[in-house]
Design brief:
It is a single chain. Strand 4 and strand 5 form a beta hairpin. It contains no helices and 11 strands. The protein starts with a strand and ends with a strand. With about 130 residues, it is mainly β. The protein is about 0% helix and about 50% strand.
């Protein structure tokens, strides 16, 4: 069983930045998993934000964050980061880190392939 723990959320002003991190532990090595960040608000479903392949060679982003957010991974530390810049109020949400057993090079954008999830961390963008 893989446990995922997110950190780094909080309050930011519009135009500011935040860095989210998640650490995967237990079960198979994290390099066996594609990783992703999703976010959810009280009125929306859990939406894909950014994903990274097992080897870190491929990334995908939601159109709404393309050019503003960057996902990266440190396999040796079983850690995935989400650098969030040029934040907007509409980025306010609970952010979830997730892991999926996928083929090398694959990045899944739907929630269903992701078997392991963190508990979520809140990001609030407000002036």
């Amino acid at each position: 069983q893989v446990q995922i723990v997110e950190s780094g959320g909080g309050l930011a002003q519009p135009g500011g930045s935040l860095r989210l991190s998640c650490v995967a532990s237990g079960g198979q090595p994290s390099e066996m998993f594609g990783m992703a960040w999703f976010r959810q608000t009280p009125i929306n479903e859990r939406d894909f934000v950014a994903g990274i392949s097992r080897g870190g060679t491929k990334t995908r982003y939601a159109d709404s964050v393309e050019g503003r957010f960057t996902i990266s991974r440190e396999s040796a530390r079983n850690t995935v980061h989400l650098e969030m810049g040029s934040l907007k109020p509409e980025d306010t949400a609970v952010y979830y880190c997730a892991a999926a057993q996928v083929l090398p090079g694959a990045v899944k954008t739907d929630v269903h392939p992701y078997q392991f999830w963190g508990r979520g961390i809140r990001v609030n963008v407000s002036s």
